[in-house]
Design a protein that fits this description.
6 strands; two-stranded antiparallel sheet; two-stranded antiparallel ribbon; 5 helices; about 160 residues; single chain; alpha+beta
């Protein structure tokens, strides 16, 4: 699940960034993206349902990537112990559970060849976090850039 947020009307900012050395520009944008993504990450952790282990909440994190000159921030959940993140976010349909490498399943003290799982109700936490905090994330991004630009201007 990926959502790209496009920001328009930043021509003046681009002019200032063009005047800066590429390394400083890259670090500023990278820091601003991380700061904005952290806002959404915090909201996702707040909205995340917590089970017995809390592994799903712990798995929510921000990662940064630069590819072909394009910097991106990704907020993800799952992996490792919390492989079920997508099932929590989107829910599951009713389905049959069959043993993979045994003849039967042992459930509630009874031996079964197959079990009908009723499905799981969706409990979205990532999408509402993005929807609810997108504008605050953009504000955080621009505030980070303004602060960095002010420091650079003061140093001249």
């Amino acid at each position: 699940m990926m959502t790209d947020i496009q920001i328009k009307g930043l021509e003046g900012l681009q002019t200032l960034l063009d005047e800066l050395p590429a390394r400083i520009e890259k670090n500023m944008v990278r820091g601003g993206l991380r700061a904005g993504a952290k806002v959404v990450e915090a909201e996702a952790k707040q909205l995340c349902p917590v089970g017995k282990t809390g592994a799903l909440k712990e798995s929510i994190h921000v990662s940064m990537r630069t590819r072909q000159g394009r910097i991106s921030a990704t907020i993800s959940a799952g992996g490792g112990k919390a492989w079920y993140a997508g099932m929590v976010e989107h829910g599951t349909a009713r389905h049959w559970i069959k043993p993979k490498d045994r003849k039967s399943l042992f459930l509630a003290g009874l031996e079964r060849k197959v079990v009908l799982h009723p499905g799981a109700k969706k409990q979205p936490f990532m999408r509402p976090a993005i929807d609810g905090k997108a504008s605050e994330a953009i504000e955080t991004f621009s505030a980070h850039l303004r602060n960095r630009l002010a420091k650079i201007e003061a140093g001249k």
